[in-house]
Specification:
single chain, mainly alpha, Serine Threonine Protein Phosphatase 5, Tetratricopeptide repeat, about 0% strand
């Protein structure tokens, strides 16, 4: 029993010693801690100030400029959408003028699609490959469009990988069956009917009520006949 009490006493002394050393360390370095805390506060305040007084006004300004470019894009006036009309900026200028805003980021997507529609496939690859988003619809569409651009450039393997990626990025009926079909069609043209059949069967199984699902049987029959 005495040994146990002695051990407990030693443990308490060790804890008290450790606490004393910690307190002494804090006291000796209190100026350093104050500088660190002050630095963190300055960073946070600076970030909030930049966001409120610079980024947010720039985003609002970029949005007003982008409105007309989006209107031209919707009307298939892709040159005006890209380069502007003299009064409003196009997507290319928005990227240059408002580079840190969401609108500049989205302009990469619009620019890539515009170049794709204009048949300028290398430019489409350049912009679409630099566009990243977590949006469940825009993400797959942008990867699929990049696949279209690569396919037009004759790079079938890259196009196939992008179609397959677009099909799996978001499990929704609006995009997934479209890119499964594109991947299947491309695989057929490349002479891989069995791989194409897997994509077609996925459409039949997972998306039977979509437009692609309702016409998938003829594709399955065609590939099965080739096998």
């Amino acid at each position: 029993m005495a040994k146990k009490k002695t051990t407990q006493h030693d443990n308490l002394q060790n804890i008290e010693s450790a606490l004393t050393k910690t307190e002494q360390f804090i006291e000796d370095n209190q100026n350093l801690f104050l500088y660190i805390i002050g630095g963190i506060v300055l960073v946070v305040v600076g970030y909030l100030a930049i966001t409120r007084f610079y980024i947010q006004p720039r985003q609002k300004e970029a949005q007003s400029q982008m409105f007309m470019a989006e209107q031209y894009f919707e009307k298939d006036s892709f040159n005006l959408a890209l380069n502007g009309d003299g009064n409003y900026l196009g997507f290319l200028d928005i990227m240059d003028e408002y580079g840190i805003t969401r609108q500049a980021k989205l302009s990469r997507y619009y620019a890539g699609i515009s170049y794709l529609r204009l048949g300028q496939f290398s430019e489409a690859v350049d912009y679409l490959s630099r566009f990243k988003t977590k949006d469940i619809l825009l993400g797959p569409v942008s990867r699929g469009a990049l696949g279209d651009a690569y396919l037009e450039l004759g790079e079938q393997e890259k196009a196939l990988k992008l179609y397959e990626k677009a099909a799996t990025m978001s499990d929704n009926e609006m995009t997934a069956p479209i890119y499964l079909m594109k991947a299947g069609n491309l695989l057929e043209s490349m002479g891989h009917p069995e791989a194409a059949l897997k994509h077609y069967n996925n459409v039949k199984k997972k998306y039977p009520d979509t437009m692609e699902g309702r016409m998938i049987d003829k594709y399955i029959s065609r590939v099965s006949a080739k096998k």
